[in-house]
Amino acid sequence: LLADCLREGGYRVAFAQDGQAGLERALELRPELVITDWMMPRMTGPDLIARLRESPLMDATPTILLTARSDAESKVLGTEVGADAYLGKPFNEQELLALVRNLLGLKRNEREVQALNSQLSVSIAELRTLFDGMRQGVFSFDHEGRVGGHWSAAAAEIFDTDKLDERSVEDLLLQGMDEGDLEKDVLARWLQMVFEVPSEDFDEFRTLAPEEIVQRRDDGKLRHLQLELRPITERGSLKQVMCLASDVSEQRRAEAEAESRQQSNQTQIALLRQISDGGAGLVRPFRVTVAYTWFR
């Protein structure tokens, strides 16, 4: 009757005559679900389930314990040995099929979650490797301004801390900017409003944030950071913002030095032109002084 009910429900069924044979067949066939009677020769149902739970191949397989016992003590024992469900005799066919469907559905969901977790673990590991290989400081923050649990090694170096998750995005970006700096006021307002903006409008809103900020470090030196802000969405909703910060301080210092040299060169060129035109007021006094010293 049990086998007929399951076959009519579209399931393939394998039999065993007693508990020991049932254990051997289960380990051999590795079925998706095991239904066992309580009282069987050579091995009881609870003992069979307990042995299955000891096997790495079958420890997560759903089991149904079928018995005429209806006392609470028996149900507790069945649960303690690892039975997923307890079905009394005589059983209702519809109840049995519903129970089988539910257990198999839960098992299928569990496998999918495990697969997703495995992919996620790989993705996080790959992401960490990618982050650590980047010269940019990469971190993310949520709607409360909290920095997420993953950031690049460059971020820890740029912001002089290996504990970014103990600091807020305002602390990382705004601290060190001079009071009265317009870029500081704009960035502070942007950080306050970003999670109020619809995710589809993020790209347009992103253009309002400063592309570069200047911070004063503890040693008094200036740190120039180029910022790139990107959305992290989930089901169309903005969940986090990723910040890519590039330290361009050396580049800006080199540019300042080059500009200073250019200005100096332009000044020298202007003086030489004045000399060549004979109109420089300091030229004749210089020549007179030299001539006077020579003849003296």
> What's the number of extended β-strand segments?
7
* Percent helix range: 40-55%
Mean pLDDT: 79
How many H/I helical runs? 11
Rg, Å, rounded: 38 Å
Identify low-pLDDT runs: 280-296
- What is the H/E order? HHEHEHEHEHHHHEEEHH
C-alpha end-to-end distance: 136 Å
| Largest beta-sheet details | 4 strands, antiparallel
Describe this structure in words.
The chain has 296 residues and is of the alpha/beta class. Helix content is 50%, strand content 16%. The protein has a four-stranded antiparallel β-sheet with strand order 4-7-6-5. α2 runs parallel beside α3. The C terminus is likely disordered.
Task: Tell me briefly what this model is.
The chain is an alpha/beta fold. The protein has helices at 2-8, 19-29, 45-53, 72-80, 93-132, 153-158, 169-174, 182-193, 202-206, 249-277, 283-295; strands at residues 34-37, 63-67, 85-88, 137-141, 212-216, 222-234, 237-247. It contains eleven helices and seven strands.
